[in-house]
Amino acid sequence: MTTHELLLAAREAKAALAAADSQTKNNALHAMADALLCRTDAILAANRLDMEAAKGIIADSMLDRLALTEDRIKAMAEGIRQVAALPDPVGRLLSTHTRPNGIKISKVSVPMGVIAIIYESRPNVTSDAAALALKAGSACVLRCGKEAHASAEAIVKAMKKGLAEAGLPENALALVEDTTHASAEELMTARGLVDLLIPRGGAGLIRRCVDNATVPVIETGTGICHIYVDKAADQEKALNILENAKCSRPSVCNAAEVCLVHRDIAEAFLPRLKERLTTLRTAAEKPAVELFLDEAAAAVIDGTPAGENDFDREFLDYKLAVHVVADASEAIAHIGLHSTGHSDCIITEDPKTADAFVTAVDSAAVYVNASTRFTDGGEFGLGCEMGISTQKLHARGPMGLEELCTYKFVIKGDGQIR
């Protein structure tokens, strides 16, 4: 089917999704999870095709995002089951009041309709997006990058089987066959067919959607995430957090990209940072982190001189920019200039400094003494997520079920006229 035909079919299917009760949707979700597990071999075979085609074309850290394993497929299925266990967001009474003339006005949550997602090389987004859209009562049209298309196609085929078993229209879930820019542009401009567009990927993809979409779009963020190590930090705690935030999975948007260090502890802390992220990791046969240093940091430890744009880069790799600041106020100012508003962190044992940081830093997730890697729908108790919104209207931070609904006013009277 062409992209336009898929959108027409999704629009036709959205009424059945909107009318489905909680039990029907949950039955479909469990059937979709079961189908993923039953078709694990087929999904892994498709993923191997994607991996072979991508080797030498995309970075190793991005290959990790593309790769599927039995455990990752099990995690995808578990994510779907977690969504099934969450309260149904559709039909919730958000507020109600009765006017002096007796008219009763209620604000009720309702499905978006057709949600389109444009994403790149993460196959798990396929199942996350489909599960969340279904539970939120919306049809879902997926458009992935060519690197992940075989994997996504196998995943969607399995999940469609689950939809059919639950008696819901298979066209409520669709994968766009065309992986050229033309199909992305068609989704961006499909007024009347797409009720909400969500891009997930690199800065270029997100900017194209924000700049060119004529349908409603939620801006999901690139993650230039900062960790500020204050003079009152527990340095061992800081090292543990930094290694986790940078190295546990450097190719994701909640990985740390910039470390800010208070100048009063720079001479003591920076050598420990270099040892933890380079020397010890090399000795343990783990990838070492390349440190991009400003002049003050380079006066203390060896590393790569930071270039003009290195504090505005989402490395998505074993690379970390390091900047020495005079105090927390300068750290906050630096974050204000360079952060993408995703996730930023302070490490300090001083509650006043922590409170000032939380108040002043205008990001979707602001941390005190914890890794930025927790910015995730599952970690926040939302099941899986549709993405991390860095905008301020409607949705901000990890987008779960509530953020995938809109609302309408229901007005009940008894013959009142104005």
Mean pLDDT: 93
Specify the biggest β-sheet. 7 strands, parallel
Strand order of the largest sheet: 10-9-11-8-7-12-13
Low-confidence residue ranges: none
| Share in β-strands | 15-25%
Characterize the overall form: globular
The total of helices stands at 14
The rounded distance between the terminal residues' Cα atoms is 50 Å
Query: Which structural class matches the secondary elements?
Result: alpha/beta
Order of helices and strands: HHHHHEEEHEHEHEHEHEHEHEEHEHEEEE
Total beta-strand segments = 16
The helix content is 40-55%
The gyration radius over C-alpha positions equals 23 Å
Question: What does this entry look like structurally?
Answer:
Helix content is 42%, strand content 19%. The chain has 418 residues and is an alpha/beta fold. The strands form four sheets. A seven-stranded parallel sheet has the order 10-9-11-8-7-12-13, sandwiched between helices. Strands 5-4-3-6 form a four-stranded parallel sheet, sandwiched between helices. It has a three-stranded antiparallel sheet with strand order 1-2-16, with no helix packed on it. The radius of gyration is 23 Å and the shape is globular. The termini are far apart.
